[in-house]
Every structure is written in C-alpha cells, then in structure tokens.
Amino acid sequence: MRERPWYKPLVAWFESQxxxxxxxxxxxxxxxxxxxxxxxxxxxxxxxxxxxxxxxxREIRPVKGDCRxxxxxxxxxxxxxVLLWIRSDRRLTVEQKDTILEEEEIxxxxxxxxFVGDGWKIAHCTPEAxxxxxxxxxxxxxxxxxxxxxxxxxxxDRRRSVQYANLWWNGYNPKYRRFDVDCTNYVSQCIHAGGIxxxxxxxxxxxxxxRTDLWSYSWAVAHSFHWYLTKGGGPMRAVQVSRPxxxxxxxxxxxxxxxxxxxxxxxxxxxxxxxxxxxVNAHTVNCRHxxxxxxxxxxWTPNTRYRFYRIEG
Length: 313
Fold this sequence. Notes:
The protein is an alpha+beta fold and 313 residues long.
C-alpha cells in the first residue's frame, strides 16, 4: 500500500471528536491542528461543548462512539498539503433510564492537512453537503419488523411514515429528485408515504405536490413547507403544538437557525426517548434518531427557533 503519512492525523482528528463526546477531553484536539486559536477550531470546540452539555441535560450516559471515515475524493495532493473530501459515518450509543439508544449520522467534510514542523496536522475542517452525484443505496427494508409507533389519528399511517423515514435516511429514493439541500424533500416523501395525498395546484407557490419534472416550493423548500404547515397543511391538517413532548412519531419539527424568520430545516419524528422527547430523522446531513434540538449541529446558533407540528391527516 502506498504510504499516506497524512492519514494517521486525519483518523486521529475524528477519533478525538468521539473521545471529546465520551469523556470531555479536548486537549488532544488542539494538539492535532496547525493553529489552536483559529476561528474554526474555536467553533468546533464550542460545538462539542454543547454536545457535552446536551449529555448532561438529557441525563444520559455515553456508552460508545463509533466513527468510520472514508476518503471520497482527493481534491489536491501536494508535497506538504493535502485537500480531501471525507465521509464520516458515526454511531453514538447512550443509556438513558436503563434504556439503550442509538443515533446515527452521515456527514461530509473538506479537510485541509498540512505538513508543519515535524509532522502532519489539520489546518481546516469544513462541513459540507454531500455532492449530488454521490448517492448511497438504502440499508433497510419496509418489510423489516419494527416496533409500531403510537397512533393518534385514523387517516395518517404514522407507522408507514416512520418505516419510510428509516428506510431512506441513509439513501435516496430514485422515484424522486435528490436536492442539494434535501431535508424538506425527504420529509415530504415520508408524510406522503404515510398516506397523506398531495395537494395539487397549477402554481408552484401553492399546494404541496411533486411531479417527475416539477414540484411545489412547499415540497422541497424548508421555508415554504413551514408556511404551508402554518396555514393548516391542506390534507395534512397540521396543528402547531407548543412543546416537543406533544409530538408523536410521524410529526414534524421546523428550524430557524438564525432566528430571523427564515425557516431553514425540517425533520420528522421517528421515535421518543424514555423522557418523552422526540428523536428525529433528516436529510442534508443524514441522520437517524438524532435528538430533536440539534444543539450539537454546526448550523445551530443561540438564536435558533423551533416550531412543532402534529399531522392530524
């Protein structure tokens, strides 16, 4: 195998993030970077500290953190500098009130590694959306047995919606277009799979619908989908509730990262933790059973706002 001296610090960087989450050890992170005072390092440290605080607030015990990385593309290869596209597959296992929970995430990064002094170090690590052409097959099957989620309405098949969400969380249904920012398209598919009919219209800014070559803004754009829900959600009969605990599997959470009134992200509830809080699936940064508040996300800010919608169907 050809020597890749930059690979060892790359693996160590992602392993150190896991150790930080498990044990709160951040010093090792600083030893792996070219400049521990760089803004991106400070932002990463703050994000990991939020993740540790989330552990304490949820009263969970980290059990195990697995992270597998793959070099997806070598964008630049020079004698003392390497720029790479990295795919990270993470599985976090925690214990909460004698219950074992697992969360999975697939994330993409552009990582710049430089030779400094007597070794290779991380000069920059930037989260990125997965390039559209890199599509993964699904790992699950609708025929797999699952514990049925709670049903609260007769017209909306929440079990089917959650099954679809778990089938396609780490892949893309070829019947639909895949978007650079795919979160709302994915949530729309899940709701439709649960039996909610499309709300057709000849206008893209009205209704909620998808055709092979065209779709409504509300089908695929986070802000438009939020306002569609706010108006009652047509056949969804969406009802806003005040607390996340009031949601059931198959319901929706909307996110405004900057608190500026522009809604940026949507997720679907696929499970509840032992304290009754939602766990969600999403696309763009694809994840399964992630804790609903996203405080460990690169996108989260102190101004983040949420809205919670129950689908009555």
